[in-house]
C-alpha cells in the first residue's frame, strides 16, 4: 500500500546542532508539506513544495529549510536547533493542490 | 489575518451521546473545508466540504458547511470510546495561486464508557 513515512519517530538533540527529519511518500504526489504541532497553536505550516525543485516558505519557516530533489522525498533541516523548535513535526502530501492531505506518523523532536 | 476557530476546546461525554463540534473561519480565498481525526499519531482524513448545505456522511459521523455564515459542524451520533480523539478543522485557502491548509487548534473529545 502507498504510504507516507517519517523518520526518526523520536529525536533528542542539542541546541545549535543541525538536524534533518526525513519524509518519504510512495503515492507519487506532487505536493508535500511540513507542519509543526504545538499545544495551543494547532498545525502550522513550515515549508511546502508543489514538485521537484520547487520549495516555498510557510508561516513559521525561520530556522528551517527543505529541498526537493525527487517526487518521493522532502527532508526538513533545522540549521541550528533551538529550544523553541521542540515540537511534533508532521509531513503531509496531497495529489493535487485542492485535494485532501495525508499525514505521516509524526516526529517528536526535543532540543535540549 | 486568516483564521480557523474551533469550539469547544474540549468535551467529555458518555457513550451513546451525540456531539456537535463547531468550526468557524475567516479566510481570504476559501476553496474547501476539511475535517480530520487525530488520535495519538497522524491526523486521518474524514471529510472535505466545498458546497453549502450538502451533508457528508460516513457511518455515525456527518458534516455540513455553511459558506454564508462561514462555519461547519461535525456531528457524531451514538458516540463510542473509540471516538475519543482531537478533531481538527482545516480550510484550504487559495490566495495568489498557492493552496494552503489553515488549521484550527482542534476540539479534544473524550468519550467515557
Overall, the morphology of chain B is globular
Percent in helix of chain B: under 10%
- Structural classification of chain B: mainly beta
Helix share of residues of chain A?
under 10%
Oligomer: heterodimer
Helix-strand topology string of chain A: EEEEEEEEEEE
Number of helices of chain B: 0
How widely separated are the two ends of chain A?
37 Å
In whole angstroms, the N-to-C terminal distance of chain B is 41 Å
Order of helices and strands of chain B: EEEEEEEEEEE
- Which range does the strand content of chain A fall in? over 45%
Number of helices of chain A: 0
Radius of gyration of chain B: 14 Å
Biggest chain-to-chain interface with counts = A-B, 23 and 23 residues
Mean pLDDT of chain B: 94
- Number of separate strands of chain B: 11
Give the overall average pLDDT of chain A.
Answer: 95
Short description:
The complex is a heterodimer of chains A (112) and B (113). Chain A is mostly beta strands and 112 residues long.
Which characteristics define this entry?
heterodimer; A: 112 residues; mainly beta; seven-stranded mixed sheet; four-stranded antiparallel sheet; 11 strands; 0% helix; globular; B: 113 residues; five-stranded antiparallel sheet
Explained architecture:
The complex is a heterodimer of chains A (112) and B (113). Chain A has 112 residues and is mainly beta. Chain A has strands spanning 4-7, 10-13, 19-25, 31-38, 42-51, 54-57, 64-66, 76-78, 87-94, 101-103, 107-111. Chain A is globular. The model of chain A has no long low-confidence stretch (mean pLDDT 95). With 113 residues, chain B is mainly beta. In chain B, the strands form 2 sheets. In chain B, strands 2, 4, 5, 9, 10 and 11 form a 6-stranded mixed sheet that branches. The radius of gyration of chain B is 14 Å and the shape is globular. The A-B interface holds A 31, 33, 35, 40-45, 48, 56, 58, 90, 97-106 and B 4, 31-32, 34, 36, 41-45, 48, 88, 90, 92, 94, 98-101, 103-106.
